[in-house]
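Hi R.,

As promised, here are both runs. First protein below:
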Amino acid sequence: MHNRMSVILQPESEEEWLEKNSDKDSIIVLLKPYPSEAIRAYRVSSDIGNVRKTIRS
């Protein structure tokens, strides 16, 4: 997990987020914790996101 993790919206909130994205007061109520039981986390290599590593195909 990351302390600058993006917002995860409930599916039913997505349309409202997109319609009102410039009105801070109306979308702030959509920023609530996503249910932890609905999130899956996977450990990945520290090479992920490392700009010094390149993927060659």
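And here is the second one, sequence first, then its structure tokens:
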Amino acid sequence: MKVWTVVNQKGGVGKTTTSISIAGSLCALGYKVLLVDLDPHASLTHYLGVDADNLTVSLYEVFMQNPSKDFDINNALHTTKVDNLILLPSHIALATLDKSFGNSPGKGLVIKNALSALANDFDFVIIDCPPVLGVLMVNGLVAADKILIPTQTEHLALRGLARMLKTIEQLSSSLKADASVMIIATLFDRRVNACLLAYSNMRSVYKGLIWRGYIPVDTKFRDASYEGVPVNILASQCRGAFAYDKLTNELLKNVV
């Protein structure tokens, strides 16, 4: 089982879209995928049609029960409209964890340890992180085999990218030794000069980390969100689906 964590300390860059779209592409290839929603705003959870506000068991219970042997993480999992795609949903109570956990030892290992119980059940885990550095983001990063950083192709987003890479560097001693990083250019519109300049800058500065393609602006992403499915299921031939399929194939090249 491989864990891919989608993260950026800036909001609005396409983290949730990237998470659900890569998951959809993997499922289309026959892989069994678990989506983990670490964001208290629960955008991914609501995207997939699960009412996070009324859950009795969610990711919050995973944190609060860890490392109790009496808690079965399978009780928190939800099926989705998509074959082979399972959700571990979020809850607003996750926002209290930084305060309640304090300096508790092992607080950054909860997700990594919890996923170990599911290692034989899934081929891939995609973790959608909140845009705030705290116990939730740290859990997502520590569990990752690959760290994916969606970055909007605009000037302000580049500052957020630099900050995110600095955070990863600071946490390097806690990450998996072979964890790799990939930057993904998102919301790209070739008609907009600012997008062209930002994309060119990203490729120049981060040429060793950035994926050689990009995710274009595509209205089908909104339509897919409304329907509660990945874009490749709603419109497999659209530009957005094609881009995420291409990205997923690139990510799979180095998977053992």
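A quick note on the second one: Strands lie at 2-6, 33-37, 78-79, 85-88, 124-128, 146-152, 180-186. Let me know what you think.

Best,
J.
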